[in-house]
């Protein structure tokens, strides 16, 4: 596929060297102008949104009905602006995933599938212009040096895409690593190619860190970027220890390139391409669900689209001086917020994933990996891998139980029954009878496996 490299360089330079207003008010005024222009385009080219917004002016865009994945998939055909049907889009995307050949498009439009972590898979459409803009923006924000210098990039993905292929050039060698390929194959390729930049989910970065610790992986990348999964503090520590450097992050999903880390390692929202409204879960603690409007994407408009993630805003300004909102952490999905019965009235109260993670990690330094699953409000199962391989430690389990009980009581909730199991390779991955990886699930350290009843007030 022919890619206009000049356009990528243009977007790279515009992102890298744009001068922003000194005040937050100036940034928001600039965003407002872009969103209103975007809304006018979407009204003209999308029958669905034209009807949905008929009772609102462009200036009232913050009052538009909120979208989500279910609504977007239900109205996929009339909502996109290029006349592609959901049936043909899914057919192309599924064929690509099954064949592992991700080159096919519909005309010039790239089609891809979301991972379906929340239970239903979504489809996304990206035009050539949007691919070039995405590539230039990502390179400007994440390359460790100038675009003129040579760089070899190893990109670990569940599914490749023409979107990612836009990055390749003579100076930038882009190597796609299929996450379903054998780990030993990855290690052999990495040792041969010796990439300077590695982009991978934390679950894969943990595997590579372990291979490096064992002496099997002999590469020295100068930048590591975590993508696609929540970067848990425990995983961050293990990866940074083995590679002797800070792990950077990219917060990107089907709905857009939402945030990335600056030179100080702080996540900043990419407010030069998106506006994120905050639906607060706990305003005092700065926790919110993002409602995004991406004014850089026209093929499949993303306007007031509610994600299912929990973000925590940073209380202190970042030393880098960026005018874009700084994020302290991405905690995970709303679906994975734990709940406990109130000691006062037996109603369910939320317990955020970050609290659960910290209780387990801080209980013992011997915890290497964990997975906390809440089966019911009264029952939590914790899978542990500790410093003594293949064993269980009653003392560590007691320390974690005590920490969890303290946490629940501090939030005035009844402590649940805590059960412990060994953490092994089968917790996050599936293998066939020959030991080959057949499926790698997104890493979720904190997971809730029961549904809330309609009578539950989720944020008391």
UniProtKB/TrEMBL annotation:
Signal peptide as annotated in the record: none
InterPro entries listed in its UniProt record: ANL_N_sf, CapK_Type1_Caps_Biosynth, CHP02304_F390_synth-rel
Top-level taxonomic group: Bacteria
Protein name (record): Adenylate cyclase
Species name: Paenibacillus lentus
Lineage, highest ranks first: Bacteria, Bacillati, Bacillota, Bacilli, Bacillales
């Amino acid at each position: 596929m022919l890619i206009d490299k000049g356009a990528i360089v243009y977007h790279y330079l515009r992102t890298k060297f744009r001068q922003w207003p000194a005040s937050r008010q100036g940034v928001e005024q600039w965003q407002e102008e872009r969103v209103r222009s975007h809304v006018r385009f979407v009204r003209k080219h999308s029958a669905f949104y034209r009807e949905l917004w008929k009772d609102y002016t462009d200036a009232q865009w913050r009052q538009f009905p909120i979208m989500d994945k279910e609504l977007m998939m239900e109205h996929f055909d009339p909502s996109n602006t290029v006349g592609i049907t959901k049936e043909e889009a899914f057919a192309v995307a599924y064929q690509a995933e099954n064949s592992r050949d991700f080159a096919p498009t519909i005309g010039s439009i790239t089609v891809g599938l979301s991972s379906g972590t929340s239970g239903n898979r979504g489809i996304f459409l990206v035009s050539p212009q949007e691919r070039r803009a995405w590539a230039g923006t990502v390179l400007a924000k994440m390359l460790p040096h100038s675009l003129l210098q040579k760089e070899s990039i190893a990109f670990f993905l569940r599914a490749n895409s023409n979107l990612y292929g836009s990055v390749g050039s003579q100076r930038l060698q882009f190597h796609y690593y299929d996450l379903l390929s054998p780990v030993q194959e990855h290690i052999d390729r990495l040792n041969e190619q010796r990439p300077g930049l590695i982009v991978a989910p934390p679950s894969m970065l943990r595997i590579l860190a372990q291979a490096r610790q064992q002496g099997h992986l002999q590469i020295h990348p100068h930048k590591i970027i975590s993508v696609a999964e929540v970067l848990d503090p425990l995983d961050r520590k293990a990866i940074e220890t083995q590679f002797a450097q800070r792990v950077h992050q990219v917060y990107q999903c089907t709905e857009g390139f939402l945030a990335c880390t600056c030179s100080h390692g702080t996540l900043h929202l990419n407010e030069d391409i998106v506006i994120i409204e905050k639906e607060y879960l706990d305003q005092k603690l700065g926790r919110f669900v993002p409602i995004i409007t991406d004014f850089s994407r026209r093929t499949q408009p993303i306007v007031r689209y509610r994600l299912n993630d929990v973000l925590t805003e940073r209380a202190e300004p970042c030393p880098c001086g960026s005018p874009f909102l700084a994020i302290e952490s991405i905690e995970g999905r709303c679906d994975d917020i734990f709940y406990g019965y109130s000691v006062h009235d037996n109603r369910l109260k939320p317990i955020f994933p970050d609290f659960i993670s910290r209780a387990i990690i801080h209980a013992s330094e011997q915890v290497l990996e964990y997975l906390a699953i809440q089966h019911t409000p009264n029952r939590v199962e914790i899978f542990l891998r500790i410093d003594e391989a293949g064993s269980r430690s009653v003392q560590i389990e007691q320390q974690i139980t005590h920490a969890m009980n303290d946490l629940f009581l501090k939030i005035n909730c009844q402590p649940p029954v805590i059960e412990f199991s060994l953490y092994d390779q089968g917790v996050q991955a599936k293998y066939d009878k020959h030991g080959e990886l057949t499926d790698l699930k997104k890493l979720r350290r904190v997971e809730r496996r029961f549904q809330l009843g309609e009578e539950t007030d989720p944020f008391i």
